[in-house]
TrEMBL record:
<dbReference type="InterPro" id="IPR054539">
    <property type="entry name" value="Beta-prop_PDH"/>
</dbReference>
<dbReference type="Pfam" id="PF22807">
    <property type="entry name" value="TrAA12"/>
</dbReference>
<protein>
    <submittedName>
        <fullName>Soluble quino protein glucose dehydrogenase</fullName>
    </submittedName>
</protein>
<feature type="domain" description="Pyrroloquinoline quinone-dependent pyranose dehydrogenase beta-propeller">
    <location>
        <begin position="25"/>
        <end position="413"/>
    </location>
</feature>
<dbReference type="InterPro" id="IPR011042">
    <property type="entry name" value="6-blade_b-propeller_TolB-like"/>
</dbReference>
<dbReference type="InterPro" id="IPR011041">
    <property type="entry name" value="Quinoprot_gluc/sorb_DH_b-prop"/>
</dbReference>
Length: 417
């Protein structure tokens, strides 16, 4: 028995160090390391049921299949990797059914499916399942999610066709929306994006879509650039980046199902100090972009769905993932060009009430997002700093993150996971 007891220690291994392109700063209790570099603009990231990692590479490769050696904590390294799917149009979205047998991947225009075998790392039986999602070249990514609480549907996000896309005010354009598709329907024959059920609309570009353990669907929205309030330029600190709630996916009668979230007419307040005539406004209050006219009034904006939380303007949140017990959400802020000084370029956590399925902080909070991994100097961004995109929990509880400017995948460990 003594020999058996010491075997794990005798054969313990340590992964070789990969020096990061830009070393981050860590909050107390968190640490991490680069698992893999040399990728080509990694974006979406998921784990299959065998513990293998899949990532989309926006830089022209398609989908990569990565097997890992996990020696505990952040001591994780690549065992092998290969190109799973070769398609230069694949740019972000990736999802697996909970049984691990069907893989969905997206481009600017299209969602495809494959039969997937995680043990052999192979795909077969490619199908086009959803099409007609072109927005020109603006907001090209299409985030995908198969919810665990309703595994017979696929959620597909589509952003706007311009900074302020006036046509997105018409639900029939199917832009700035999240739509729901029955898997059986799309596998039976290709569907136009407009055929999906509207889960939410009025979302400018909600690249981050995630599921709380209770089935609640949440998104993080990127607000408009160059916002004015009347004749006043307020864009450097407004509007806020929004955290929005879309109800429990398994509850078709949820009051949030099919609701309007304000765009393109409305944004929400982040910085009151620069907004003229701000009496009665607070952080998170929806208001008209530009100036009120006709039916486009602040009251109209406030009759639509309000954000559950706000984050600083132009920080570009691109994902939201929850820990297993639903007490924490992790949000990567990709960062934006439309602000001085540069902001974002960090990974943050938001505390959650698992019992209610809602954030702990009030909707007016300006401190709900707590940074856990960040660049010491955002003046080097976006080209000379890490720039987080997507996150995913691995089978042993660590958090993995893609950084597209540095072409890296990170593993992150912390006591609160």
């Amino acid at each position: 028995m003594a020999v058996v007891a010491i075997l794990p220690h005798a054969f313990a291994q340590t992964c070789a160090t990969i020096n990061p392109a830009n070393a981050p700063t860590w909050a107390s209790g968190y640490s991490g390391r680069v698992v893999m570099n040399g990728l080509r603009t990694p974006r979406g990231i998921i784990f299959d049921n065998q513990g293998n990692l899949l990532t989309t590479e926006q830089g022209g490769y398609g989908v990569r299949y990565i097997t890992l050696n996990d020696y505990g904590g952040t001591n994780v390294c690549v065992k092998s990797n290969k190109q799973l799917i070769s398609d230069s149009t694949i740019n972000h979205g990736i999802a697996l059914t909970p049984d691990g047998k069907k893989l969905y991947v997206s481009s600017l225009t299209t969602v495809w499916s494959w039969d997937y075998d995680g043990t052999t790392g192979t795909v077969s039986n490619k199908k086009t399942v959803i099409e007609n999602m072109r927005n020109g070249g603006f907001h090209p990514t299409r985030t995908l999610l198969v919810p665990k609480n309703q595994p017979d549907v696929l959620l597909v996000q589509r952003g706007s066709a311009d900074n302020v896309d006036a046509a997105a005010a018409q639900i029939e354009t199917a832009r700035s929306q999240i739509r729901v598709f029955k898997l059986a329907d799309i596998e039976a024959g290709v569907k136009d994006y407009t055929a999906g059920q509207v889960l939410a609309w009025g979302l400018r570009n909600s690249v981050g879509v995630g599921e709380h353990p209770d089935g609640g669907i949440w998104s993080v929205d990127n607000g408009v650039d160059d916002m004015r309030r009347g004749s006043t330029d307020v864009h450097n600190t407004n509007p806020c980046e929004e955290l929005n709630y879309h109800g429990q996916i398994q509850n078709a009668a949820s009051p949030e199902r099919g609701a309007h979230y304000g765009y393109p007419e409305c944004g929400a307040v982040w910085d009151l100090s620069v907004i003229p005539s701000n009496t009665g406004l607070k952080v998170g209050t929806p208001l008209v972009i530009g100036g009120p006219s006709g039916s486009n009034t602040d009251a109209m904006c406030q009759s639509r769905q309000w954000p559950k939380l706000c984050f600083p303007s132009h920080t570009a949140p691109l994902d939201i993932k929850f820990n297993k017990n639903g007490t924490t959400a992790y949000i990567p802020f990709h960062g934006s060009w439309n602000k001085s000084p540069a902001d974002g370029f960090r990974l943050s956590r938001v505390n959650w009430d698992a019992a209610t399925g809602q954030p702990m902080d009030a909707s007016t909070s300006t401190t709900a997002a707590v940074d856990i991994m960040y660049n010491a100097n955002n003046g080097n961004c976006p080209n000379r700093c890490f720039r987080p995109v997507n996150v995913a929990f691995g089978p042993n509880g660590q958090l993995f993150m893609t950084s597209d400017t540095t072409n890296e995948i990170w593993v992150i460990g912390g006591a609160t996971f």
